[in-house]
Amino acid sequence: MQPNPSTDHAFLSRIASAIGTPFYLYDAAAVRRRIDAIRDLTSADGLQARYAMKACSAHLVLREVQRAGIWIDAVSGNEVLRAKAAGFPMGHEPPVVLLTADVFRDNALEVVLREGVLPNLGSPGQVRTLAGGGWRGPVGLRLNPGFGHGHVQACDTGGPSSKHGIWIDDAAAVADAALSAGLRVELLHAHVGSGPEIAELEQNLARLAGRFAELLRRFPDCRAVNLGGGIPHSYRDPAWSPDLGRLARILGEARDRFREVAGRPIRVEIEPGRFFVAPSATLVARVADVKSTRENDKGPGQAFIMVDAGFCDLVRPAMYGSYHRIDVVSEVPGPVGRFAVAGPLCESGDVFTRHADELIEPRELPEPRVGDFVVLHDAGAYGASMSSNYNSLGRVPQVWWDDGRAILMSRRETLADITAAECEEALAV
């Protein structure tokens, strides 16, 4: 019988002996289950799923997505190139890879011009930039419909305070400017997010579909409408999963409505990111110490489990106050107490047990011994992909667990990796 990859002490010990801690452990079966759920959701004619690869761009994850016939939403030139390396075709007939951006940074414009992927423009000025670079192909427009938000308040995906997209009332003027520059608007796009509930996503998508139906008459070249991502994932309840049947009906109704308004087939796309990979990865850390502070006039004391993983490895709790389930994996579990879990970084914010207001929120956990493991679950989305070299620490290894086989899919970074880009070259300015 195969071990549970994230809670089996002997198994984690073998991996740790080979590559050290901390490390990310991915469950390939969990990735495939979510891929299958999205394939079922978009199995009807005229529907297409994309993977928002910013959530996790590991090559083995991309390979699974590519094999399933799911397309890509990339947000940088290098993401496009990583998709290409994973086997996704370039070009825009069909537009398997979409590059969505508010600003062309680094090699993004060069990659669009060379690889021919469909650029999805989030700012009016990108029309000028793209045309000036020599592009004369199709484009998409990412629109801000005036509403929407993500899973936490910091993720503001739509509305007056969101930086994303072209304000929907300006869409026609931007389309006219694009056409004058020789660019055809073949895709309309928006991402309004879900909040924490599937019902809110359904309401948002139905509302968004209505706005796009009004617009389609003014976009004679439009071939597709992308309704964004936002399928929620429960970080607190591993048994919960959304009922996607109602969502499938909303997508089908939108497709039929768009077809009727436009008088031609309109492909309807969605682009989940988090939903594909959130439950697939666990961050595995080692306990270095257990220590306590004492109550004084500044507040109550805290008991801290000190681990070797920090917010350079998983930044979501420090950035958003996001919740991740935590388990202590020990051969001899200790008595349950209330503990904060904290990392090694030279930052007071390097604490994994925080609530939405980013204050410390201890958890009921078994008291560990030094050398035990602490595992942070549901770290597949925006875990490794948002990790950093803060404090000059190398990004941690990633391990792929697939049908009884452990595969190292990225090694631990060394100091040489971290400093490889450092130089001392004179600039001719």
The rounded Rg comes to 23 Å
Structural class: alpha/beta
Q: Say how many strands there are.
A: 18
The major beta sheet can be summarized as: 9 strands, mixed
Q: What shape does the CA trace take?
A: globular
Mean pLDDT: 93
Which sequence of SSEs, written as H and E, runs from N to C? HEHEHEHEHEHEEHEHEHEHEEHEEEEEEH
Extract low-pLDDT stretches.
Answer: none
Report the portion of residues in β strands.
Answer: 15-25%
Number of helices: 12
Q: Helicity level, as a percent range?
A: 25-40%
Termini Cα gap: 65 Å
Q: Notable features of this structure?
A:
429 residues, alpha/beta, nine-stranded mixed β-sheet, eight-stranded parallel β-barrel, 12 helices, globular
3D architecture notes:
By secondary structure, the protein is of the alpha/beta class. It is 28% helix and 22% strand. It contains twelve helices and 18 strands. The chain has helices at residues 9-19, 28-41, 59-67, 77-85, 108-115, 125-132, 171-180, 198-216, 245-262, 274-277, 316-320, 415-419, and strands at 23-27, 47-52, 71-74, 97-101, 118-121, 138-144, 166-167, 184-189, 224-226, 267-270, 281-292, 303-307, 326-329, 336-342, 363-366, 373-376, 398-402, 405-410. The strands form two sheets. Strands 1, 11, 12, 13, 14, 15, 16, 17 and 18 form a nine-stranded mixed sheet that branches. An eight-stranded parallel barrel has the order 2-3-4-5-6-8-9-10. Strand 9, helix 9 (245-262) and strand 10 form a beta-alpha-beta unit. Helix 4 packs across helix 5 (108-115) and helix 8 runs parallel beside helix 9. The radius of gyration is 23 Å and the shape is globular. The mean pLDDT is 93.
